[in-house]
């Protein structure tokens, strides 16, 4: 078979491995994969090859050029002969996956994994795309169950977010290792698929800033459920790490007693802007805005503004412009002077003052402006964010296009996204 065909791992066991010169290197004993937190097919990262009696090495799949019925052929290059030592988040397909009892998502039928089929995807990575499973019967001793093939994502119990019967808890460290490289939105989708117990274990292990980023990507119901499971002190710390508008939205979904208790545990300087945002009605500019846009005083230079913009923790919408105000700099600020867009800043000498570059011709909004007014304003002037000022022209905050999208998309859109990942 060619490398583009599906290969069932159990049939690979024992076949010979050859180098490009035709010399036998050893025999395949297993394949190594890394389970994922979502339902996507896991990548096969390499083969375990026995090169001498009881001496097994790891051969990356990138070295495999061809898999035939009776042999595996490797590309040229040096083979690392170091003994294979499985890492924490690695799984052996034959040793760990086969004979595992899992559940079919359609109908909750119990089945046993008897083989795993791997094939190359569009990125030319080998992934486990299908499983051969046998149904369980009440009389297994006398009659074997029916054998069939299913897609990887049709089975529950083989992701890091779903503990399985043979091992009630895939180590939290292993789950965290997989989640560490994912975007916050993808981690949120993975948490949605987890059991409540596992979700709380992972949330507890994440640091405050990371959990805050993830919470901001979860649905309102999931946010509330998770925050109410946390200890009050931890919940307050995470709320402090969240964007103030997201923290206000989350607190607004909690009972009044919970709101006041958590706000009381937050640092006063962190709680104050959140309290202020909670006074505005939902679906208004005040209710949508962040009170922490990039704010500069008139004597700030372009170099100083660009240094603020380079902060990797800022979202693209927030980093698209700076707002120039008279003192005081914290919201509500002194008089709002205008906006300096990043493209304009990049074209000016670093020593120039931002006050000489700011524009005000695109206008601003009042905090009671409706979401329809906010949307039309952004579209009319092709903006990614718009300032919000009070009747005294003091800057209160800014509404970005991502804030508006969160409220314009249909209810449950985050859940639909999580399903798409599955």
From TrEMBL:
Residues 358-417 form the CBS domain. It holds the Pfam family SH3_actinomycetes. PANTHER family: MAGNESIUM TRANSPORTER MGTE. SUPFAM superfamilies: CBS-domain pair, MgtE N-terminal domain-like, PRC-barrel domain. One of its GO terms (molecular function) is magnesium ion transmembrane transporter activity. PROSITE patterns: CBS. The lineage of its organism: Bacteria, Bacillati, Actinomycetota, Actinomycetes, Jatrophihabitantales. GO terms for cellular component: membrane. Transmembrane segments: none annotated. It comes from Jatrophihabitans endophyticus. CDD domains: CBS_pair_Mg_transporter. This is Mg/Co/Ni transporter MgtE (Contains CBS domain).
């Amino acid at each position: 078979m060619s490398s583009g065909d599906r290969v069932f791992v159990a049939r690979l066991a024992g076949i010979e491995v050859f180098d490009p010169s035709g010399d036998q290197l050893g025999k395949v004993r297993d394949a190594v994969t890394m389970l994922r937190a979502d339902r996507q097919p896991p990548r096969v990262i390499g083969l375990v090859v026995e090169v001498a009696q009881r001496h097994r090495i790891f051969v990356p799949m990138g070295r495999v050029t061809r898999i035939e019925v009776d042999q595996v052929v490797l590309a040229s290059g040096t083979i690392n002969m170091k003994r294979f030592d499985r890492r924490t988040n690695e799984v052996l397909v034959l040793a760990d996956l086969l004979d595992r009892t899992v559940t079919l998502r359609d109908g909750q039928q119990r089945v046993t994994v008897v083989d795993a089929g791997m094939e190359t995807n569009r990125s030319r990575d080998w992934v486990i795309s299908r499983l051969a499973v046998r149904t369980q019967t009440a009389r297994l001793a006398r009659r074997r169950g029916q054998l069939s093939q299913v897609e990887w994502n049709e089975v529950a119990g083989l992701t890091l977010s779903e503990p399985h019967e043979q091992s009630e808890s895939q180590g939290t460290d292993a789950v965290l290792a997989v989640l560490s490289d994912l975007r916050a939105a993808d981690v949120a989708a993975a948490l949605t698929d987890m059991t409540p117990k596992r979700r709380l274990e992972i949330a507890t292990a994440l640091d405050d800033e990371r959990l805050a980023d993830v919470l901001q990507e979860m649905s309102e119901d999931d946010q509330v459920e998770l925050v109410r499971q946390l200890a009050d002190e931890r919940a307050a710390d995470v709320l402090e790490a969240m964007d103030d508008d997201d923290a206000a939205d989350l607190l607004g979904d909690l009972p009044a007693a919970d709101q006041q208790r958590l706000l009381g545990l937050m640092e006063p300087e962190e709680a104050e802007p959140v309290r202020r945002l909670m006074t505005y009605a939902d679906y208004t500019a005040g209710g949508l805005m962040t009170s922490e846009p990039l704010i500069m005083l008139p004597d700030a230079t372009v170099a100083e503004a660009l240094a603020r913009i380079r902060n990797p923790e800022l979202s693209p919408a927030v980093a698209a412009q700076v707002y120039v105000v008279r003192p005081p700099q914290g919201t509500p600020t002194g008089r709002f002077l205008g906006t300096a867009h990043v493209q304009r800043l990049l074209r000016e000498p670093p020593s120039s003052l931002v006050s000489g570059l700011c524009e005000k011709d695109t206008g601003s909004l009042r905090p009671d402006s409706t979401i329809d007014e906010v949307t039309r304003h952004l579209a009319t002037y092709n903006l990614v964010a718009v300032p919000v000022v009070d009747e005294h022209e003091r800057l209160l905050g800014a509404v970005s296009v991502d804030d508006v999208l969160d409220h314009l998309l249909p209810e449950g859109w985050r859940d639909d996204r999580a399903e798409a990942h599955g």
